[in-house]
Amino acid sequence: MTYERVCALSEVPEEGSLRIELADIDVAVVQLDGEVYAIQDVCSHADVPLTDGDVDDVDGAPTIECALHGSCFDLRTGQPTNLPATEPVPVYPVRVEGDDVLVDVDAPLAATSI
């Protein structure tokens, strides 16, 4: 695994997200209930940044919502939790060291159901 520092934890809003533009991918770094997640910053249904949407806990699942059509994605798995999206979004391993958020964009986690 190759973790890369993408931002400071203090830059990520509590219960919100921060768009990180890397060389070949845009990542949403999300903070919710003290946990930090990284998910590709594009809805699989429409080419819309997920960072434009709300972050919330829905039925026990940490999610980010697409602001255009309302699909939500589980931040742990990338799976959509409602329509119209039917395809998952890649999620990435995250590590927090002090105030540094490190993400391994070279090793997306396989989408699974929880």
How would you describe this structure to a colleague?
Keywords: 2Fe-2S, Iron, Iron-sulfur, Metal-binding. Residues 4-103 form the Rieske domain. GO terms for molecular function: 2 iron, 2 sulfur cluster binding; metal ion binding; monooxygenase activity; oxidoreductase activity, acting on paired donors, with incorporation or reduction of molecular oxygen. It is built from no helices and ten strands. The model has no long low-confidence stretch (mean pLDDT 93). The chain has a single domain, classed as Rieske Iron-sulfur Protein, CATH 2.102.10.10. It has strands at 4-8, 16-21, 26-32, 35-40, 55-58, 61-65, 72-74, 91-92, 94-97, 100-103. It is mainly beta.
CATH class: Mainly Beta
Give the topology string: H per helix, E per strand. Answer: EEEEEEEEEE
What's the shape? globular
* CATH homology superfamily name: Rieske [2Fe-2S] iron-sulphur domain
* Average predicted local confidence, pLDDT: 93
Percent range of helical residues: under 10%
Rounded to the nearest angstrom, the radius of gyration is 13 Å
CATH architecture, by name, is 3-layer Sandwich
Please count the beta strands (DSSP E, at least 2 residues each).
10
Q: Percent of residues in beta strands?
A: 35-45%
Instruction: Quote the CATH topology.
Output: Rieske Iron-sulfur Protein
Organism: Modestobacter caceresii
Keywords: 2Fe-2S, Iron, Iron-sulfur, Metal-binding
Protein name: 2Fe-2S ferredoxin
Pfam family, one: Rieske
